[in-house]
Amino acid sequence: MFVEQPRGYERKGEEHKVYRLKKALYGLKQAPRAWYSRIETYFVKEGFERCNCEHTLFIKTGNEGTILIVSLYVDDLIFTGNSESLFVKFKNSMKLEFDMTDLSKMKYFLGVEVLQNSDGIYISQKKYAKDVLERFGMEKSNNVKNLIVPGVKLMKDEEGAKVNATVYKQLVRSLMYLTATRPDLMYVVCLISRFMANPTEIHLQAAK
User: Fold this and answer.
1) CA distance 119 to 160
2) What percent of the chain has pLDDT over 90?
3) Using N-to-C axis directions, what is the helix angle for 126-135 and 165-178, rounded to 10°?
4) Which residues are within 8 A (CB) of 43 and not within 5 positions of it... i.e. 6 or more apart?
């Protein structure tokens, strides 16, 4: 990245200078790209292969069918696999290369709660769902058994009472993220998302 000296600080007869930064500044739009390039170079050097369809997913295979999978989210990483020795080797290598903190087994990540025990790995978004209810003032609302009233067909409601489109979009997007652990919500969420441009009271009621 190059930073030019502001013209207001130039003095007559002085040479205009250009400075090269040693590293990207945090907060600039170039910083994420610079960091990704840095971490990708490290992964390639360590024998990882980048997933073709998901560029933040890196996979390393070892002897006898061992595998290590690393998922990158900005400067947070989660990894899994089937070899404890690969885990230890990877963590030690990361600590030598970066200033890293080991948070042990994952319990909470990006709004998703993770429970790991001998029976398997379970994920849920209970806390996230409660936060969504509180955000939209519905924490004391009655629950329902059906995701949508049976037989209801949502359509454009040109003559209906308009609602705040921004709030409606925020509600729909919050529900979209909830489908990560609640795929049974997918149909209804996709249905109500059709009306984000011009939502009315009937659409908001269906979303709630």
Assistant:
1) 51
2) 27
3) 170
4) 50, 58, 70
Q: What is the pTM of this model?
A: 0.67
Low-confidence ranges of the chain (pLDDT < 70): 1-25
In three-state form (DSSP H/G/I as H, E/B as E, the rest C), the secondary structure along the chain is CEEECCHHHCCCCCCCCEEECCCCCCCCCHHHHHHHHHHHHHHHHCCCEECCCCCCEEEEECHHHCEEEEEEECCEEEEEECCHHHHHHHHHHHHHHCCCCCCCCCCEECCEEEEEECCEEEEECHHHHHHHHHHCCCCCCCCCCCCCCCCCCCCCCCCCCECCHHHHHHHHHHHHHHCCCCHHHHHHHHHHHHHCCCCEHHHHHHHC
